[in-house]
TrEMBL record:
<dbReference type="Pfam" id="PF13517">
    <property type="entry name" value="FG-GAP_3"/>
</dbReference>
<dbReference type="InterPro" id="IPR013517">
    <property type="entry name" value="FG-GAP"/>
</dbReference>
<protein>
    <recommendedName>
        <fullName>VCBS repeat-containing protein</fullName>
    </recommendedName>
</protein>
<keyword id="KW-0732">Signal</keyword>
<dbReference type="InterPro" id="IPR028994">
    <property type="entry name" value="Integrin_alpha_N"/>
</dbReference>
Amino acid sequence: KVTIPSQTTYSTGNGPISVVAADVNGDGKPDIIVVNYGSSNVGVLLNIGNGTFAAQTTYLTGAGPFEAAAADVNGDNKPDVIVANSGSNNVGVL
């Protein structure tokens, strides 16, 4: 028998549509990046390290953000957040 623990929820912006896990602050712990379609922003929830996450910090995007990825695209050895903005027909790098 598999026991699934109860869900822990965290507040996001309006219309969360996708999530990515990546270590955005370099502490070796995966953080959560949530794409908030209805708020036209992405939220980053930092991993506290005890199985929980801090409240999201939001970053504005173009209109209708739909999907995000994390990778070092500018060569500074830190992950960047790349966001596809379907409402403004562009891609943003945070």
